[in-house]
Design brief:
The protein has 10 helices and 2 strands. The chain is mainly alpha-helical and about 230 residues long. It has one domain. Strands 1-2 form a two-stranded antiparallel sheet. Helix 1 packs antiparallel against helix 2 and helix 5 packs antiparallel against helix 6. The two termini are about 15 Å apart.
């Protein structure tokens, strides 16, 4: 018989922190690799003074990298080994990786444009679709369906963790700042001590911890499904 799981947001945050601390030596190379993958996106803005090419790069390259990093978080939270193949998982299932991520973004954006609340609900319903794809190798529809089952009774708890992620993204200082409009962008760097420390804490501590907490949520919610759905 399955043991009851504590699926409160606080339990996910604690489990995520414990996994982050335990697995940091294994996680750190992937975090640094992610920063390397981000560099061309900044260079494209600096060189062309527009977001266009950076957005294309982000969709085609950073999207599958992010999906692979989700698999790394999932496996490390389970105290399993994670390797380069896991990190690059999104490229091995490239069409589905792009389709799921783009569909999630468009669904959320459409809901936000129509009314703010539906957009939030849509995102909270399907926010684990990329985790399902990376972990279970599900199809596009199956990824969204599995996410909906996982999040059905836990949207409020997930909202707390996601709100923390959004808050860190907004409030933490950035070394590379972008000013101007979409077609007239300018890249400026801030190497002040506080900016560099804050950026490092964001990318190497707070966001990895919170992303590990999302992996904790996924892993624990997965255990609540009937065994046939958890194969």
């Amino acid at each position: 018989m399955r043991q009851p799981q504590d699926n409160s947001s606080l339990s996910w945050l604690k489990s995520g922190w414990d996994a982050y601390m335990d697995m940091l030596p294994r996680l750190l190379p992937f975090l640094l690799a992610l920063e390397v993958f981000k560099i061309p996106s900044l260079w494209l803005i600096h060189h062309f003074h527009t977001y266009t090419w950076s957005l294309i790069y982000s969709l085609l390259i950073l999207t599958p990298v992010s999906l692979g990093l989700n698999l790394v978080y999932i496996k490390l939270h389970r105290r399993q080994s994670a390797g380069v193949r896991d990190f690059l998982r999104g490229f091995f299932i490239y069409p589905r990786s792009l389709a799921v991520s783009l569909s999630l973004g468009l669904l959320t954006l459409g809901g936000l444009i129509a009314f703010i609340v539906p957009g939030i609900i849509l995102y909270l319903t399907y926010c684990l679709s990329e985790y399902a794809l990376a972990d279970k190798n599900t199809g596009i529809k199956e990824s969204f369906a599995l996410s909906a089952r996982l999040t059905a009774a836990s949207r409020g708890q997930l909202a707390s963790v996601i709100l923390l992620i959004v808050s860190i993204e907004i409030l933490a200082p950035e070394i590379a700042g972008i000013s101007g409009g979409f077609k007239n962008s300018d890249l400026k760097f801030d190497f002040k001590s506080w900016t560099m420390i804050g950026h490092a804490l964001k990318d190497l501590v707070f966001l990895p911890w919170l992303n590990m907490s999302m992996a904790a949520a996924y892993n624990r919610l997965l255990r609540t499904l009937p065994r046939d759905d958890n194969s």
